[in-house]
Sequence to fold (92 residues):
Amino acid sequence: MEDFAAVPDRVSELLVQAGFTKQLSKDNKGGAMMSIMIHSLISSRKAELDQFALGLGPVLKAARENPTVCKPLFVYDEENCKVTPASYKKSR
Fold:
């Protein structure tokens, strides 16, 4: 695309929503795309993620303080795919 003045309105709207405030050019089109991707993947879901973290409460605190102990509860591992009270006690 040589003529950046002819960018469709929808793309311009996405750039504004993503917080990209520069004039679109060949030199900054990668940055513009990155801004749109970050906004659509992370920023727009941040409130939901924050609410989820708040809901985890003491579980999140324990996971942050003891990441190796809590890892089997949150990370898939084919060898230890069945989390049971016995396997949790064994990992401590």
User: Anything to note?
Assistant: The chain has a mean pLDDT of 81. Residues 6 and 12 are 10 Å apart (CA to CA).
